[in-house]
Amino acid sequence: MSDTVKYVLEESRIPKTWYNIQADLPKPLPPVLHPGTHKPIGPDDLAPLFPLELILQEVSTEREIDIPGPVRDVYRQWRPSPLYRARRLEAALGTPARIYYKYEGVSPSGSHKPNTAIPQAFYNREAGIKRLSTETGAGQWGSSLSFAGRVFGLEVQVFMVRVSYNQKPYRRALMETYGARCIASPSNETNSGRAILAKSPDHPGSLGIAISEAVEIAAQRDDTKYALGSVLNHVLMHQTIIGTEAMAQLEMANDYPDVIVGCTGGGSNFAGIAFPFLGAQLRGGKKVRIVAVEPAACPSLTRGRYAYDFGDTAHLTPLTKMHTLGSTFTPPGFHAGGLRYHGMAPLVSHVKELGLIEAVGYKQLQCFDAGVQFARAEGIVPAPEANHAVKGAIDEAIRCREEGVSRAILFNLCGHGHFDMQAYIDYFGGKLKDLDYDEAELAMALAGLPSVKEAA
Ligand SMILES: *Cc1c(COP(=O)(O)O)cnc(C)c1O
Fold first, then answer.
1. In whole angstroms, what is the distance from residue 194 CA to residue 295 CA?
2. CA 124 to CA 139: how far, in whole Å?
3. Average pLDDT for residues 44-54, to the nearest whole number?
4. Predicted local distance difference test score (pLDDT) of residue 2
5. Per-domain residue ranges for the chain?
6. How far is the CA of 39 from the centre of ligand 1 (A)?
7. What is the position in ligand 1's atom list of the atom closest to the CA of 239?
8. Which of the four pLDDT bands, split at 50, 70 and 90, describes residue 4?
């Protein structure tokens, strides 16, 4: 009962294509709008920020997109990632459920983020780009893009949310180890950063502000483009390698999920594990319950409005329709930094609107309880973000116990917590509190949503 069960795929089974759910949607995504004119944008509007190949992927409705050979060659370093059956956790919970987890912490930077950082760096290099600018919250994305930039010979400049920059020196050191430049945001290097510092010199920063800074830098120089670690369609598509591999591994296990659980910040690791299964369902396959778990203190899917909004604070990005808390919303400083974004991926928001997925919000203490229980059973310390998925999976397993039914639960363990041990130290020291967002601030941020007349 306590033996390790691990499903390993041969290197040759690394998927050769990414899965694009836009091919199978019962209703297409609402158009992306220009921030000034509110008219649908075309590829030209995005050209200053992204290489053409990624823009084409963003709007593609082809079901399968080929993964380039050089990208698969880098993926081989850690892919296919393992799928485990959580036998010791099942025993600890006394549940008849079959719990499986896909482990993305085996990548060099310790999370799922390199799955998209590598192809993004590759397509930029192919387009002759020399530098990438980006933002990072907790530092997972910044370190992943720094690694990818190094692999493909691109300079990387990362705007890191100031609180995290001060709280997480190890993440910053990792980016610098890979040769990237890491700047605390808001910074003096951009107009958007200077405008915020003029008003509040001690501003803690936010992802929305850091995005404004990174976008501004990329828009100024021809040899520089911008890279985003979540939210966009092409990013979610690159992450589907997780679910496609998991499908093959569950076949080895002779099983198929009844429930899939993932944590959602911008929605990319969740989409990565869930969309291949959701696509199979949309094409007539087995129906799967799919649960997105978000922090109760930054609840875009459960408490946000489904509306057109900006991706950043300075309103430089196009408008996308998504579940949003408003682009000026600053969430409280809880530890799952990767989940502190005001919006949700348009694709995840869309399938939520269509009733194809569910969403729940959990507070941070119950997530850490679950993460510690998981670590004690399985030996892997999850990232604070991943603890949300662990909590969601454990709740499903307990429901199985109470109902006396055995269901297959698949969740994505999207990263390890080795750089987040300060959060665990705070947890064990009794210093971790459940933080609530400010209702008045949310109301104000929502009142500030752009008014967009939508075509019927
Ligand atoms: C970035 C990150 C997240 C949040 O981003 P998604 O796009 O929602 O996946 C979650 N977990 C980890 C470990 C991360 O690095």
1. 30
2. 21
3. 96
4. 54
5. 67-110+234-447
6. 31
7. 9
8. confident
Give the pLDDT band (50/70/90) at residue 223: very high
Instruction: Say how many Å lie between the CA of residue 97 and the centre of ligand 1.
Output: 26
Whole-number Cα distances in Å, 319 to 34, 38, 106, 277, 326 = 6, 8, 35, 29, 12
* Nearest CA residue ID for atom 2, ligand 1: 338
Pairing of strands 131-136, 155-161: parallel
Residue 456 has pLDDT above 60, yes or no: no
pLDDT above 90 for 90: yes
Q: Reply yes or no on whether the pLDDT at 206 is more than 80.
A: yes
Sheet holding 131-136, edge to edge: 181-185, 155-161, 131-136, 224-226
Asked whether the CA dihedral 429, 431, 434, 435 is positive or negative, the reply is negative
Is the pLDDT at 455 greater than 80? The verdict is: no
Q: What is the pLDDT of residue 157?
A: 98
List 408's β-bridge partners, or say none. 98
Q: Residue 287: how many CB atoms within 10 A of its CB?
A: 12
Q: What is the mean pLDDT of residues 190-203?
A: 96
For domain 67-110+234-447, the question of CATH label 3.40.50.1100 is answered with: yes
CA of 224 to the centre of ligand 1 (A): 25
Q: How far is the CA of 36 from the centre of ligand 1 (A)?
A: 30
pTM of the entire structure? 0.97
What's the gap in Å between 454 CA and the centre of ligand 1? 31
Using CA atoms, how far apart are residues 233 and 408, in angstroms rounded to an integer?
28
Three-state secondary structure of 170-227: HHHHHHHHCCCEEEEECCCCCHHHHHHHHHCCCCCCCHHHHHHHHHHHHHHCCCEEEC
Nearest CA to ligand 1 atom 5: 265
The Å distance, Cα 138 to ligand 1 centre, comes to: 9
Residue with tokens 């985003």: 228
How far is the C-alpha of 308 from the C-alpha of 449, rounded, in Å? 8
Identify the bridge partners of residue 295 per DSSP, sorted by sequence position.
Answer: 362
C-alpha–C-alpha distance, residues 418 and 380, integer Å:
10
Percent of the chain with pLDDT over 90: 93
Contacts of 255 (CB under 8 A, 6+ apart): 98, 100, 408
Q: Which amino acid is at 107?
A: S
Atom 1 of ligand 1, residue of closest alpha carbon: 338
324: nearest Cα among 307, 348, 338: 307
Pocket of ligand 1 (CB under 6 A): 111, 113, 140-141, 230, 263-270, 338-339, 383, 385-386, 414-415
pLDDT band at 438 (very low <50, low <70, confident <90, very high): very high
Nearest Cα residue to atom 11 of ligand 1: 385
